[in-house]
Write a structure and sequence with these properties.
11 helices, elongated, seven-stranded mixed β-sheet, kinase activity, transferase, ArgB_GNAT
């Protein structure tokens, strides 16, 4: 299969061109052993071995080498990953290198990668011992993500799938998922890496989990540190410009920072921000920008929640074609369409709505080109 055909297969599965290429670029930029550890239990292998095989083959053809861990009970299914009895190369065989009872995890992975094969470990352990092995593996490789393949496709609470689970959260999982959630939380705590995350998803949704911002299952992560900075001159303008211009794919006008802002709600590593102004009608959201990859980490939601808690009366505008406008429609109290714009507000008094709409209508643009999507 040609490289172009492989990319088309990826896009066919993920249904998102922009996200997929961004994530592929990111994954290829890090050391191959840090990309991901994928654990498939025996239930997943019995139910979805074919889907898992297909997705792992596609990852390999994209020059990505996830470290695969299989349950001992599911080892009978590993014939899907290796050569047939005639030792012939067939399209159904995944180029993997199998390890059992390995004492040198890093060395084993390195030997597989040197042969351009996927490292595949057979977990002899069960229960707590299994999660201890996964903890050791993720810590040793300094992997960025553990993907736990689970037949239910995610963690549920009160019958609803949890998209992002903050590890300090008090949300209670449904009884069927509580043991898995507790084990994952313990694993997360023991890995002790702020960039580490755990995704619980199904084998068939593996690529969507890896290559789209929305993901497909449940992402366990620590809530991002969000600060409110009243003095905009105390932040790095260079980093702010990079964040905003990359998010909107447009250049800021030269006099942008000459405006008077009430402050910035900022993620500590400049992954996202919300710039606000004071007005007679309430707080105006001037810019809401989040790094593309960080959107999948819940950065935007964390900033939004902090901002709404600080500024309960808020209004802003977005272009009609802006993809985030659909989400704005869900979180706003009211909206009005006018020309190329949609005006949104939260907590605004009814008598102030005409003034808010007039303010937004006469607001000059802060960005140079009309091709993208400013607020």
């Amino acid at each position: 299969m040609k490289h172009q055909e492989i990319l088309l297969k990826l896009l066919e599965v993920t249904e998102n061109t922009k996200d997929s290429f961004q994530f592929l670029k990111l994954f290829r930029s890090i050391e191959p052993e840090k990309f991901a550890v994928i654990y498939a239990d025996s239930g997943t292998l019995m139910e979805s071995a074919e889907a898992l095989l297909y997705n792992l083959k596609l990852l390999h053809k994209l020059d990505l080498y996830p470290v695969v861990v299989l349950d001992k009970d599911g080892i009978s299914y590993t014939n899907l990953f290796y050569r047939n009895h005639n030792k012939e190369e067939t399209s159904s065989i995944l180029p993997g290198k199998l390890f059992r009872h390995s004492q040198d995890l890093a060395g084993s992975v390195a030997s597989a990668l040197a042969e351009k094969k996927l490292p595949v470990f057979v977990a002899e352990e069960k229960g707590a011992a299994l999660f201890s092995f996964l903890t050791k593996l993720c810590s040793t490789l300094k992997t960025k993500k553990l993907v736990h393949l689970y037949t239910r496709g995610g963690i549920y609470s009160e019958g609803n799938k949890i998209s992002i689970y903050d590890v300090d959260s008090s949300v209670v999982a449904d009884r069927e998922d509580s043991a898995l959630l507790n084990s994952c939380l313990e694993l997360y705590k023991n890995v002790k890496d702020k960039e580490f995350g755990i995704a619980v998803t199904s084998a068939s949704s593996l690529l969507k989990e890896l290559f789209t911002i929305k993901g497909s299952g449940t992402l366990l992560r620590r809530k991002n540190r969000i600060d409110f900075i009243a003095d905009v001159n105390s932040v790095s303008k260079e980093k702010m410009n990079l964040l905003i211009e990359k998010a909107f794919q447009r250049s800021l006008k030269e006099d942008f920072w000459k405006q008077e802002f009430a402050g910035i709600v900022l993620e500590s590593e400049y992954k996202g921000c919300a710039l606000v102004k004071n007005t007679p009608f309430g707080t105006f959201l001037s810019k809401f920008a989040v790094d593309e990859i960080a959107r999948g980490e819940g950065v935007g939601r964390d900033i939004w929640d902090d901002m709404i808690a600080r500024f309960p009366i808020l209004f802003w505008r977005a272009r009609k074609e802006n993809t985030i406008s659909k989400w704005y429609m869900k979180v706003c109290d009211g909206m009005q369409k006018e020309g190329i714009w949609i005006y949104f507000w939260i907590g605004v008094k009814e008598e102030h709505i005409p003034g808010v709409c007039s303010f937004l209508k006469n607001l000059p643009q802060d960005l140079e080109s009309p091709k993208s999507e400013p607020l």
